[in-house]
């Protein structure tokens, strides 16, 4: 079914067997791919782009000059997971995020995992993402990461790996929701032929999660707002989208102020007390009196209110230590230490260049490894060794030697592929998956699926939107609707 085989890695295709036949459970989507006229698919692809542009879904790429707004490429062939696969992933995701929250509460309080030697103290206490300002600060329900985006990759029928944990301000959920809406408009008959689990209740789940972590002294119905850095942030569309869907105010730092150790919002009817803030502003810019003194994005004094327990912030301040790429290596230890369980989801083998033996191995095997900056994100600052030339590897080696503790390395996995509609027809493209896990004081919530990102270039392993990657709609088939009675998927 694929028309392109330039990928140097032998990859697991999620829909098509090596002999060209569909995998079990994928027969209907495979039949649609074969029977749908290519001319019609090209029209639908063009219509999808028109819809996204009309809706205003764009992505700002900093540092490129000119108009930074661009459409994220969208592929009309859905990525499909069976209900049994999703059930396994959902259990593994809940387990992982529970352990990450327990780790954050621990390192900002008793530090038991550090005292036990299960995670190196140096790696936490000397990490730039660890904020001493949060030591001893109690947060509602001991929940630090309310919204987590866990990046998964697949290498085989039952082989899923966590690539990284996003516990600060994970983005992309608006694309997940709009991908579904566009696919339903363009291919209603295809939906009618599949039992696809709905994702539309995510804003409701998010709102309920935020409500559940309101401060203990909150009177009446908590007031929730979304705090955005503003129009020029790369994820501004998502901020406006989620605020609108939840029916709450979208605010910027200048719209909020602190008085009598509470946070208030300026409104046309006078000040209104704010109880829960879903913040999309980095820690460093949140409060100029505590962190970056030149910040005009945050709210002066908000950290005092936060420490007093008079406002809740989601995600909590200081949560970035949990998505540090070196801390990632120890998440299986966290699961064992806090939960007494074996990890359901695997980590990718990781080498930390701060360790002498690891660093020597990395430098000797740069042509085989993917090397990343510990504090990097968005696909920037990384080296994909097998696809780099000798000059690029040599230059990167000098960077590693200069600051070894700032780099980790992992084997180059053979990421799974999905058929993707390109100019020449169907072709395999590598994909990953970012499910969104919502952790409230009452329960953990997941909508079935997540954001599938796809490397649009043949053979590329980089799926990040900032690096030219696109997205697909993610379908979970034959869902267990009885779980919540309305098609949702609570973990």
What does this structure look like?
With about 500 residues, this protein is α+β, with helices and mostly antiparallel strands. Helices cover about 30% and strands about 20% of the residues. The chain has a six-stranded mixed beta sheet. The chain has a five-stranded mixed beta sheet with strand order 3-23-22-19-18. A hairpin with a 2-residue loop joins strand 18 (about 415-420) and strand 19. Helix 2 crosses helix 6 and helix 3 packs across helix 11 (about 330-340). The longest helix has 25 residues, at about 85-105. Mean pLDDT is about 90; it is low at about 1-10, about 60-65 and about 480-490. It comes from Rhodobium orientis. Pfam families: CP_ATPgrasp_2 (PF14403).
Strand content: 15-25%
Q: Give the end-to-end Cα distance, rounded to a whole number of Å.
A: 36 Å
The CATH class of one domain: Alpha Beta
Main beta sheet: strand number and arrangement? 6 strands, mixed
Name the poorly predicted regions.
1-8, 62-67, 481-491
CATH architecture of one domain: 3-Layer(aba) Sandwich
Q: How many β-strand runs? A: 24
Briefly say what this structure is:
It holds the Pfam family CP_ATPgrasp_2. The protein contains 13 helices and 24 strands.
Provide the fold topology.
Blueprint: H1 27-35, H2 38-55, E1 59-60, E2 69-70, E3 74-82, H3 83-107, H4 112-115, H5 121-125, E4 147-156, E5 159-166, H6 173-186, H7 188-192, H8 202-212, E6 224-227, H9 236-246, E7 249-251, E8 256-259, E9 262-265, E10 272-274, E11 276-279, H10 302-307, E12 312-314, H11 331-339, E13 346-347, E14 351-352, H12 356-364, E15 369-373, E16 383-384, H13 390-402, E17 407-411, E18 417-422, E19 425-434, E20 436-439, E21 444-446, E22 451-454, E23 470-477, E24 489-490
Parallel strand pairs: 3-23, 5-13, 6-7, 6-11, 11-12
Antiparallel strand pairs: 1-2, 4-5, 4-20, 8-9, 9-10, 14-17, 15-16, 15-17, 18-19, 19-22, 20-21, 21-24, 22-23
Helix pairs in contact: 2-6, 3-11
